[in-house]
Amino acid sequence: MATPRRDPLTLEVVELIGTVVARYYEEYEQAAARHSLTGAQARVLGLLSLEPLPMRGIARKLKCEPSNVTGIVDRLEARGLVERRPDPADRRVKLAAPTEEGRATATRLRDSLDFAREPLAALSDEEREVLRDLLKRMLGETVL
Fold first, then answer.
1. Most buried among 17, 41, 82, 139, by the most CB within 10 A?
2. Cβ distance 53 to 72 under 8 Å?
């Protein structure tokens, strides 16, 4: 196991990453509240706007328990933003999918998030690619 790095540069980078994450979540929670959603509901709706998923798939992507996801999907369904439907590949499995209103809400929510978009706009395409590749590498993902 590698020894943790405690040099000033590493500590500064860790602090900056923490600040970025905190600011992103703060803005995300505020944007969700403007749409009368909790942050968790907004994250699930945003995820489902990309593709319908079973509860376990949502839980895996959000790194939480499937039972937590069920309650969130129940509340989104009660508001008419999400519906459950059979998985065409396995009719025993139910997929959560956004309704038209759910997709529209997810789009409005995504469009209202300026924090991540604005600072990134100041970076060139090449700088954003380098940042993306470094973040993927930090997460152990393969960078092509």
1. 82
2. no
**Domains of the chain from N-terminus onward:** 40-113 (1.10.10.10), 114-144 (no CATH)
User: From the CB of residue 117, how many other CB atoms can be counted at a distance below 10 Å?
Assistant: 10
Q: Where are the beta strands (DSSP E) in 49-89?
A: 53-54, 82-87
Structure tokens, 73:
């999907």
H-run or E-run covering 88: none
